[in-house]
Specification:
4 helices; 297 residues; 2 domains; Porin; single chain
Length: 297
């Protein structure tokens, strides 16, 4: 009987409190915030409404909490009843440039990111490619495909698996396969700021351009930081590290995303990838600046 009581508690709270009168003007503001469907706006209006009408503070919180409970119940029902091909969200980005005259260069970059959230599982898929050509000769080729399933065992904690394939012959390797399992934690989980941290053991196999092959156990760590600066601008910082006995890899991407019209946004990003022991004749640090259009769906 405990679970039904918890569900009914928000509905019975106004009767238990004995104070359900909210000034009409304050109630109108609260209803307008609830109608927007934005949890951040509801929280802000609730805060100021409690200050403006202290005698009705408890009743105001009851109304806001009832809305949150109903919203969460609808969300959970949607996740529980969804099929395997439902609830996928993501974005596709495309950028590039062409120059002619004294120099002839062409560059193209693209990526697709997909995410599916359910009550216990999160699935993340990513595919990306960069290609650059100077005077008819390829000067950059980078390809990546990754899949990460997460099992959520708590409100913030989860177990992850990660499989990734990369190819970048200009950075010194033709093929690189990585697999990892470990634990993740939502260190910050707010409406405007989120931070996910992951750590676990990994195994990597790399086919270098100098014909050597390296297979080794490694430690993998990553962070995913997102900060919503405003309704239309988001700052993000993603970083990962594979640390092993021989060649270790550190990579990070800093990006600024600004919404344009509807699902379309502009994105500026800067990526750094460092190899501690690249093949002879290769530079250990590679950087890429991108400007692209992003379509969210």
């Amino acid at each position: 009987m405990r679970a039904p009581f918890i569900v009914l508690l928000p509905l019975l709270a106004p009767l238990l409190l004995g104070n359900t009168d909210i000034p009409p003007a304050v109630r109108a503001m609260l209803d307008a915030a609830i109608a927007s469907g934005n949890p951040s706006e509801v929280a802000i209006i609730e805060k100021y409404a409690r200050g403006a009408a202290p005698d009705s503070a408890d009743a105001i919180s009851v109304v806001a909490n009832n809305w949150r409970a109903e919203r969460e119940a609808v969300r959970e029902a949607k996740l529980r009843d969804a099929g395997p091909f439902d609830l996928w969200t993501g974005n596709a980005e495309l950028g590039g440039y062409v120059s002619t005259g004294n120099t002839e260069n062409i560059g193209v970059s693209g990526a697709v990111n997909l995410t599916r959230e359910s009550l216990r599982w999160r699935h993340k898929l990513r595919a990306a490619a960069d290609y650059q050509e100077s005077l008819g000769l390829a000067s950059r080729e980078h390809y990546l495909a990754a899949y990460e399933p997460n099992f959520k065992f708590g409100r913030r904690g989860y177990l992850y698996g990660a499989a990734q394939y990369e190819s970048d012959r200009f950075l010194g390797y033709y093929d690189r396969y990585s697999a990892s399992i470990g634990a993740g934690y939502n260190a910050i989980k707010g409406p405007a700021v989120t931070l996910d941290l992951e750590l676990g053991p990994a195994f990597r196999r790399t086919d270098f351009t100098d014909a050597t092959i390296e297979s080794s156990v490694a430690a993998r760590g990553s962070l995913d930081f997102d900060w919503k600066l405003s309704r239309s601008v988001t700052f993000s910082q993603d970083a990962s590290a594979y640390v092993q006995q021989f060649n270790s890899t550190l990579s990070g991407t800093t990006a600024l995303n600004a919404k344009l019209i509807g699902p379309l946004a502009a994105k500026l990003s800067y990526t750094v990838q460092y190899e501690s022991m690249p093949p002879v004749g290769r530079v250990g640090t590679d950087t890429t600046s991108r400007a692209s259009l992003v379509y969210s769906f």
